[in-house]
Structures are given as C-alpha cells and as structure tokens.
Amino acid sequence: MLAFVGLVCGRLFPDAFRPDGRSFAPYREQLLVARTSLEPGQRKPDFWLGGYVTNAGNYARRVQELEVRFLEGEEKLVDVRHAKIPETLVVQPHREQAFRVELGRLVFSNIGIVAKVRVQTAIDGTLPAKTD
Fold it and tell me: Is 55 in a helix, a strand, or coil?
C-alpha cells in the first residue's frame, strides 16, 4: 500500500522529489532567445554573443548554457557552439534578461551565415547558485 501511495505521489508531483528542482525539458520552448548579435572581441577572431532571454513560463529559470547554431541558408549547419552562462542569469516568469557571453574564435568564409540561439540547459531559478 505504501508503494502505491509513493507511486501516485510521484506521478502527481514529479518535481517535488528532484534535488535540482523542476524539470527543464518540458519547458524549453518557454525560454525564448531573441535580438541576438555577434560582436568582435578585443582580439580578433574572438567573438561575443549578446541578446535577451525571455521567460514565457510561470517558473523562474537559471540559464546555464546556450546552444548557438551557425547556418548557411536555412538548413546547412556550419558550426555549433555551447556557451556557458554565469550563474547569476535568472529569468523571472514573464520577464526578459539580457546576456553577453564569449564564444571565442569563429572562422567563417561565408558572409551569409546566420546564428540561431536557444537555451540548452537551465535549472529551477529558485534554487541557490552553485559555488565551486
């Protein structure tokens, strides 16, 4: 009987027993990355990516990593980068937060390259930041 109650509670409240808070995967589309720009750094060919993350969901999210896909045209993948975000980027529900991260060295010969950015990983924004 106790196992049945545990199973029912696990199904009804799946995030209650997670040590890292609410699951992120089902809510990925609620974190939107917009108005991005690539800027050359002090040292060429290093680049920085800036933009805004908007949280369309009902829970705060601590963004940990962005995925940047560089495309030629609409479908031809040229490169993929994963940019780590400082632990301080918490996007509150129905708000937007600016970011700027270093991408490092980019070498493209084509001018028509487009960067598409999405949130790769995020955790529950109500949890404290991890300290090393």
Answer: strand
Beta bridge partners of 73: none
pTM of the predicted structure, to 2 decimals: 0.76
Element (H, E) at 12: helix 2-12
* pLDDT tens, N- to C-terminus, the chain (132 residues): 665 555 555 555 554 444 445 677 888 899 999 999 988 888 777 889 999 999 999 999 999 999 999 998 888 898 999 999 987 899 999 999 999 999 988 877 667 888 899 999 998 888 877 665
Q: Domain map of the chain by residue range?
A: 27-124
Q: What's the number of CA atoms in the CB half-sphere (13 Å) around residue 95?
A: 12
Q: Tell me 30's DSSP state.
A: G
CATH topology of domain 27-124: Immunoglobulin-like (2.60.40)
